[in-house]
Amino acid sequence: MQEELPVCRLLVQDVAKTYRVYDSPQQRLKDLVGLSGRHQSVEALLPLSFRLAAGETVAIIGANGSGKSTLLQLICGTLTPSGGTITRHGRIAALLELGAGFNPEFSGIENIFLNASINGMSRADTESLLPRILEFADIGEHVHQPVKTYSSGMYVRLAFAVAIHVEPDILIIDEALAVGDEAFQRKCFARLREMQSQGVSILFVSHSAESVVSLCDRALLLDHGQLLFDGEPKQAVGLYQKLLYARPEQRDEVRQGILAQSAAPTMAPEPEPASEAEADHPLHPDFYIEGLVAQSTDYVENGASIEEPFLLDEQGFRVNLLHKGKRYRYRFAVRLHQDVDNFFYGTLIKRVDGVSIGGVSSAPPQQASGVSLPAGSRLTVECEFELSLNAGTYFMNAGVYGDTDQYSGFLARKLDALVFKVLPNPAETATSYVDLGFRCRTLSRA
Q1: What is the CATH number of domain 297-422?
Q2: How far apart are CA 33 and CA 70, in angstroms?
Q3: Which residues of the chain have pLDDT under 50?
Q4: 8-240 CATH pick, 3.40.50.300, 3.30.70.2860, 3.40.190.10, 2.60.120.200
Q5: What integer pLDDT is reported at residue 5 of this predicted model?
Q6: What is the structure's pLDDT at 274?
Q7: Where is the ABC transporter domain positioned along the sequence (predicted)?
Q8: What are the b/e assignments for 111-149, b being 16+ CB within 10 Å?
């Protein structure tokens, strides 16, 4: 009878990592022999705690230098924490930085056996798995050559193939898949979903927002070694991007806002009262749900702000229940706080899992629009479109671009500015998310 898996695969409690940076080798030597060598303490990771349940996939996101790789190395045991405890249940397989766990002088075959033995596999078990590992890696005769001759893509192919076949209870991936080709990435993500269904726990570091939202159950946001947020992936990605695109002088304020938000109880967003502009367009009695409100995230303003986003049907009613094939207008207001040159705006539609469906900008992003506007201007803009999406729930972003005296790029961004649903049609034959206009017909019949 198979042993029941523990609910908690990994328990990280108040784990921290501090490095000592010495003024000179002599000061380091003094410290080694018990004398007091002069040094500075660098906190790579501030005390943090979290759990990883069996079958759960958790993303770790943050800018370079935020402590992601340090945390993973502590979990894997390649680094020793300066404080706190890490409790592991089960076998861990990890893809850390390129080259980790492989001997560059050994051939691919030799490294397969080496890595498998490190993960507790017997030689007999590894030999039985070898054909499957080689088939998944698909690097041909290169497997008999030293790993030091491999490209980064070949290394990742082999390392990932070994990691998924040593039957791990916890799989750790540190951005390794970013260097693989698209076909191999697709195969890897399909295998990760299969492992999820088998109850494998996964820790996943990636800079791909879409991968984090679509693959993970939770996300941890790290910044300067501190855990700022632990929660729903889509919200974590929005907060990370808000921090990433903030001006340097605004980042401390954004950090404190994220920490305060994490400490506060999660509340459902309240529908805002109709503005003067919205009052000119009444709610549709049949195709507007008052409670269908997005939990939007405003990026730090860089000279502009976005207000009052809503959708209008062809009769001028505000709607959030839409029909495929009909035309709609996405409207929002833009308020400029500084003089702006080369002004333009745009929108992007995303699925619930964060995958981009399509969007538009009012001018080619790579070209100067030539539109100059003074500070204090308030514009109402809209993007008209014919809906070709199939039934489902979708989100719309809003963005404003331009040049000010201090900044060039996004002046304001609103993530998940609004949410809408496309109503189902029982006679619909199109599949997936976007109707590409396929028409099926039988040309002959024997």
Answers
A1: 2.70.50.60
A2: 27
A3: 1-6, 266-270
A4: 3.40.50.300
A5: 47
A6: 52
A7: 27-249
A8: bbbbbbeebebeeeebeebbeebbebbebeebbeeebee
